[in-house]
Write a structure and sequence with these properties.
The protein has 342 residues and is of the alpha/beta class. The protein folds into two domains: 135 residues, Leucine Dehydrogenase, chain A, domain 1 (Rossmann fold); 165 residues, Rossmann fold. 39% of the residues lie in helices and 18% in strands. It has twelve helices and twelve strands. α7 links the parallel β11 and β12. α9 packs antiparallel against α10 and α11 packs across α12. The chain is globular, with a radius of gyration of 19 Å. The termini are far apart. The mean pLDDT is 95.
């Protein structure tokens, strides 16, 4: 049985922003992973496992750090009894995924419940099943997490649309038709408007082929330049940069992608331009709300209660929009203020 090595890099990196950053290695299968624990003061850290290619180990480590901080905002805003964590597995040609997931699961088990993992980009139900064979600290909602995430995104879009209705025919551009994006595309017309004009970009031709025929397929490099009422980012962040923010042809930005903005300052420019930005950590919290409800709450009808909690994203976001409008502030500023816990 492979036993990965775990190295605590927190003091080596001089990190004060995070509780811990751990490097996980198992050379026999090519595993290099980072587990970032951002906030350990409000319960165990929860957050997905991302498998992705990176230019360097440093980039991978930084991604785990940034995504875990985002998770803290997500669980704090949702009022969940946990902190933010995140892990990344560095993908490469020689990675033996099956063994790597097993070794990663053992590493999570060795943390003794400080970190609960779930799916993210590059890891779906199958990967989680493999990890689950080696640790019990896995999101207990063992169904496809993207269903819960997409449900939350649709709730967010209902809120954004009622705050900022379209003057002409309703149109949307969806960036990314993977696990979440494809479900959002399928639910948009029933949730928002039956005659919504829909354009979708994804460099993966197979992802586009699975979409309904009347969806317009557009090239990835034109998505941010295609005028539409709503832009729905469901690929990878960051999407809105200091450079492109001044030319985005949308009225609303609301989607599942994590860390959509290059930095928080970009939200101020969106606000000044009159573009309504629905903070990503509110909109894409469906899966963690479901996981935490199953994990931490007692009693019957847990799944139904989780769905109801996800649907409340609509009203919680409307409340943020309302306060932002009253104070002429960006919704991000209002939402971040609501993540501060005593
Ligand atoms: P996924 O890997 O299944 O899908 C991502 C899709 O984006 C892929 O089809 C990929 O080809 C496409 N893509 C990549 N670059 C693109 C580009 N430049 N333009 C257009 N498309 C591009 O991932 P997912 O699980 O659907 O997650 C999507 C986003 O939502 C990620 O940012 C993820 O972190 C976030 N998120 C997901 C969940 C979840 O439950 N899956 C939960 C919270 C947040």
């Amino acid at each position: 049985m492979v036993r990965p090595t775990i190295r605590d890099m927190t003091s080596e990196l001089g990190l004060s922003s995070h509780a811990r950053i751990l490097e996980v290695k198992e050379p026999s299968c090519g595993l290099l992973a980072f587990i970032a624990l951002h906030d350990v003061n409000h319960g165990p850290c929860v957050g997905g496992v991302r498998r992705s290619r990176y230019r360097s180990a440093e980039d991978a480590c930084n991604d785990a750090l940034s995504l875990s901080a985002q998770m803290t905002r997500k669980v704090a805003f949702a009022g969940l009894p946990c902190g933010g964590g995140k892990s990344v597995i560095v993908d490469h040609k020689a990675l033996d995924r099956n063994t790597a997931y097993a070794a990663f699961g053992r590493a999570v088990e060795m943390l003794d419940g400080q970190y609960f993992c779930g799916p993210d980009v590059g890891t779906g139900t199958d990967a989680l099943e493999r990890i689950r064979e080696h640790t019990s600290y896995v999101n207990p909602a063992d169904n496809d997490a993207s269903v819960a995430t997409a449900r939350g995104v649709l709730a967010g879009l209902r809120s954004a649309l009622s705050e900022c209705p379209s003057i002409g025919p309703l149109s949307a551009v969806v960036q990314g038709a993977g696990n979440v994006g494809s479900l959002v595309v399928k639910g948009l017309r029933t949730n928002l408007h039956s005659e919504l004009a829909l354009s979708v970009s994804d460099p993966n031709a197979r992802a586009l082929r699975s979409l309904p025929e009347d969806v317009r397929k557009i090239a990835s490099d034109v998505a941010l330049r295609t005028p539409a009422h709503m832009f729905i980012p469901c690929a990878l962040g960051p999407v809105v940069s200091r450079e492109n923010v001044r030319s985005l042809p949308f009225s609303v930005i609301c989607g599942s992608a994590n860390t959509q903005l290059e930095d928080d300052a970009v939200a101020q420019v969106l606000h000044a331009r009159g573009i309504l930005y629905a903070p990503d950590f509110i909109v894409n919290a469906g899966a963690v709300i479901e996981g935490a409800t199953v994990l931490f709450s007692k009693g019957d009808n847990v799944r139904e209660r989780a769905k109801a909690a996800i649907d409340r994203i609509e009203y919680r976001l409307s409340d943020v929009f309302h306060e932002a409008r009253e104070n002429d502030a960006s919704p991000l500023n209002v939402a971040v203020a609501r993540t501060i816990r005593r």
